[in-house]
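Predict structure. Chain length: 138.
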Amino acid sequence: MHTIKACVIICIDFRFQSHIQDFLAKEGLLGNVDIISIAGAAHDFSTPLNQESHDYVMGQVGASISLHHPDKVIFIDHQDCGMYNLTGKIPQGLALDTDIQKHRQYLELAKKRIQDAYNQIEVELVFAGLDGSFTKLS
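Prediction complete.
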């Protein structure tokens, strides 16, 4: 049986890819995670565009949990996210602290949905700043 430390859900945004790799390395997770990359990261878990989109991304998490038995799920949302802006949830160009507060509600909802679906698995919420900083919200 293959086991990993975490299933990590990140945004597709190219601006954060190297920062995320650095974060995973610092946390001792690099090379020991499944990474699911979708526009908006937690967006389709908290406020999906449609049921099919939600089901697809939830299925990806389910596959990771079934196949690799992660200890936890980590959502990493980020500052200035175009997906949240595109759907009218959070405007772009906000200060880091303001953006964190706006994302917190969506991340918390995503956490609840994952825990409800997968027997209270540990879920960690993280927010990435444009400056490469990471703030753990849970």
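Summary: The first helix runs from residue 17 to 26.
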